[in-house]
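Hey team,

Filing this mostly as a record. A colleague (T.K.) asked me to run one chain through the structure pipeline before their review meeting, and I want the input and output archived in the tracker in case anyone asks later how it was produced. No errors, nothing strange. Just documentation.

Input sequence:
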Amino acid sequence: MAVIMNEHLVCGCQLAIWKITEDYNTLLSRITLTRAELDMLERITHMPRKIEWLSVRVLLNEMTDKELSIYYNENRKPFIKGNSYYISISHSRDLTSILLSRERKVGIDLEYMSHRIGSISNRFINESEVITGDEETRKYHLYIHWCAKEALYKICDKQDINFRDNLTIEPFQPSEKGELRGRVQNRTRNEIFLMNYFTLGNYVVVWTYK
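Output structure:
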């Protein structure tokens, strides 16, 4: 397994990213799955999705040096059996990422920057958000917004949130890495989160904690 990042952050979180290079059988041989986990794996029919699913669990064991089990609630939010950690997961193309914390709720999103995001930006950018007019950085700026909103969606338990109407990223100048602020406003909350972002090749990563 090619771990390309495994950092303990000052906020008490641990962030790891790795590149998927193994095939299905190699990944399966590296972990011990419970009967319930094997049932979950068998219900996945798409082989690349099976490999992603396995990669998350192998990476989690690498991060913790433990055999931990991941399950999902009714909103498809992952949790670790026994609640020993808060966890957030993201994968795109051949990268898998996990953000862990023992004490804080966490949210992470990782995305490969393709060329399609400009055509769907009206679905998640609202009138109060500012996107650069510079064509060279516009795609990157949009992807940071998208990843930030995904991370907010995850940390808020994926409940009662519309990306355009309930999530707002305050104006910022994009750079290779930095901080931004995201607001969540709906019927049950009005909160501001400090968020961190960085690039990794042609990928964008945004993470936050509470």
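Quick notes for T.K.: Residues 2-104 form a domain with the Ribosomal Protein L22; Chain A fold (CATH 3.90.470.20). The chain has six helices and eleven strands.
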